[in-house]
Write a structure and sequence with these properties.
This protein is of the alpha/beta class and 264 residues long. The protein is built from nine helices and eight strands.
């Protein structure tokens, strides 16, 4: 069974970028999602481009919540959720922010994103999702990227942190998937990797992964947030090296084989 594993937040910190490129070298991940507003020097851009030439998919991690310089629209996640569902967000500023982040991505890497998703899943919220779909259809014409769906397996009650998982669907996941299908935009078949970033060690994270693998189906996308060292000042910074150490380990390969899963 083919699955894909996407590492998020590339560009937020060098430890994230370095760690994820290492995991791709080991064939433990298949995609990276890039915060184009982050820091990328010439070597970073070259390393990511070289990895893409070897099969790594590189996507845009649309961001409206993580503060960077020169952002036209930024707000805390809770505020963004409330205002988007009340349709109180400034639509033109959403469009400007998406266009700016897309242009920055293309300026850095000299290619268009292979896919698009959202930091903290903001791409599926009302108003934001409509702008995203409209801009993608306008800017890509016939060469559409795939866009991340956050719709979870049907056996959602069996998932760890099931309440948080259900919340993803309530906040827009199900509606967004319908919009993607309506507009014939490709997407992944199922989504896993959601938890409270509270696994204290490799064994605890492995337990989560084993449960996720047992629920995977053909084409399921797994989200992860690894870094090769702790990221200071990041609310999930302590969790990142735990994910990295597991994904780098032989135990991960054993678990993939146990569930007859292959990363593509």
């Amino acid at each position: 069974m083919k699955i894909s594993i996407c590492a998020d937040d590339i560009g937020q910190d060098p430890a994230i970028t370095e760690g994820c490129l290492r995991l791709f070298e080991l064939k433990r991940i298949s995609q990276i999602s890039v915060l184009s507003q982050g820091h990328f020097d010439a070597q970073d851009a070259q390393s990511i481009t070289s990895a893409r030439n070897l099969g790594l998919e590189v996507g845009l991690h649309l961001n409206l919540t993580l503060p960077f310089d020169n952002q036209s629209l930024i707000m805390p996640l809770n505020e963004l959720i409330i205002k988007s569902h009340l349709r109180l967000l400034p639509v033109e500023k959403i469009r400007q922010s998406f266009d700016s982040q897309l242009k920055t991505f293309e300026d850095i890497f000299q290619f268009k994103p292979d896919f698009i998703d959202g930091h903290q899943h903001i791409h599926q919220f009302p108003q934001i999702r409509e702008v995203l779909i409209t801009q993608v259809l306008h800017q890509y014409l016939d060469d559409l990227p795939w866009i991340r769906s956050t719709v979870l397996p049907k056996k959602i009650h069996q998932l760890p942190n099931a309440l948080k998982c259900r919340l993803l669907n309530v906040l827009g996941g199900t509606t967004f998937l319908s919009l993607l299908k309506l507009n014939k935009i490709p997407c992944n078949n199922g989504f896993l990797g959601v938890y409270n970033f509270d696994a204290p060690d490799l064994g605890s994270y492995r337990t989560l992964m084993l449960k996720w693998l047992s629920l995977a189906q053909e084409g399921t996308l797994f989200m992860c947030h690894p870094a090769n060292t702790q990221v200071h000042g990041d609310e999930i910074g302590k969790q990142r090296p735990i994910e990295f150490n597991y994904l780098e380990s032989n135990q991960f390969l054993e678990d993939l084989n146990l569930h007859d899963c292959r990363i593509f």
